[in-house]
Amino acid sequence: MCERGNTMAQDLLGVEIFRTGTFKPSSGGTMVITGEHLDEMVASFGALVPIGGFTPVLKLGHTDAQRFMGQKNGAPNLGIVAKIRRVRDLILADFTNVPDAVIALIRQKRFRNVSVEVVPEMEFEGTTFKNVLIAVALLGAELPAVKGLAELATTLFTDAEIIPIEAPNTETYTWEQHMYSQEQLDALNEYRRYAVTPGGLSPLAVPGMAGGMSLVTGNEHDEWGKVSTNPTDRIAMMDKRARKIEAVKDSLPLGLRFGHDTSPIGILGIGMESGVIREAVERLSAAGILLAGLQPRTIWPVPADTLEFIASKERVYVVEHNHVAQLVS
Fold it and tell me: 31 and 145 in contact (C-beta within 8 Å)?
């Protein structure tokens, strides 16, 4: 949440606003949305928004005759569409500067859905842009033409609410802190085991929970766990993993120290070598040779305590049991 002037505003990230499919709007006829339409929308957004004056906004409904927070004329925007992206058959949007009053109404499910306003073709400086997004409307009593999008309230289960991270480097850290409750899972339109989130951590449903079935594969996949060779999915998953490292690095477990910590000589190793190293430190200590030992429990990203241990010693011996000395390098 960020403070702007005398009002409070928040960001809504990863909101589903558009998808492929065949739909029958209330105005009549049939509307067919293809993957090409989604790609055109993303491309137009990327080309026009940086120019200025083309930034889409969040608004109430599809009418301009609306009032909010007491204004007498005009329709204030209720947020800015900062980014859109295609994920599989969906367009996801990030909204910034959304007033707390609107967030409260979404949380209460007064506004459950959204609907996009799109210009099929727009000319600008001799270039034709297709499927240009100009606004996203919040819908309360109205039904959206495009069905099958996740309800707005599900986006309020932010990283901070669903997957709180304990204070850095606590011994009580467990992955149970990053799991959906049954209530949260029930509120979802569908469960995505590898959902793209701002912090990179995808909330987990415990196996056996109603609505929590998922796919697991060793290959690259999409948000649902289905194997995918689509470059868009690959980039989204790689970026998500990088963000996840940043999100959890301060909560990863510290190494275990043993021996004489003030000794200028250190020795460290991981895994099966640790027991042998501890025995060696004890035998050398009995012989009057004092060593400081460290068993790192996190390899990557390299924790600060590992670097501090190395920096505090005049010499450090690394005991490894692999062909290329991976830990040293």
Answer: yes
Residues 6 or more apart in contact with residue 129 via CB below 8 angstroms: 43, 44, 47, 48, 121, 122, 123
Between β-strands 7-19 and 90-99, what pairing exists: parallel, antiparallel or unpaired?
Answer: antiparallel
Structure tokens at 69: 């927070």
Report pLDDT digits (tens) over 251-307. 788 888 888 888 899 999 888 888 888 888 888 888 888 888 898 888 888 888 889
Structure confidence by residue, pLDDT tens digits, 195-223:
888 778 888 888 888 888 888 888 999 98
| pTM for the full predicted model | 0.47
Contact 48, 84 (CB under 8 A): no
List, in order of start, the domains of the chain with CATH numbers: 2-156 (no CATH), 160-251 (no CATH), 256-318 (3.40.50.920)
| Residue 208 φ/ψ region, left for φ over 0, alpha for ψ in the -120 to 50 degree band, beta for the rest | left
CB 275 within 8 A of CB 293: no
Alpha-carbon distance of 180 to 205, in angstroms, equals 5
Measured in whole angstroms, the distance separating CA 146 from the mean position of its chain's CA atoms is 25
Do 17 and 93 form a contact (C-beta atoms < 8 A)? yes
